[in-house]
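Bumping with the actual sequence this time:
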Amino acid sequence: MNTVIPNQFAEAQTLNVQQLFGLSNSAFAGLEKLTALNLQAIKVTLAENQAILMKAVSARPEELFVLSTSLAKPMAEKVSAYSRQVYEILSGIQGGLSSTAQSQFQQYQRGAHVFVENLTKNAPLETGIPLAE
């Protein structure tokens, strides 16, 4: 009995499991970065809001308008920086997943090619058609 095909199958399954865990670890690392970014953003926002509220409580009514307009530009910059960081994290995750998927597809192509070659090498040549005399 030929053991090449079962060995190839076992090797392919091992590779698939390794790639699955690699993808899972990559996705989890990205999720971890995103969670850390969100926690940092919440912490900073709470501290800034406390400072703003303290200024607003102690400000005179005519100073409240100046206070609110002075906050618009820094807030827009912070939102932009946060969006950039989220984009970078998600791009990193996507890039890792794409490269892994591409390498896995190439591995499948090579495996299929080897499988077909081995199958044709080991196939019997009997066709039932007589050879030309």
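The tokens above came from a reply further down the thread. The radius of gyration is 31 Å.
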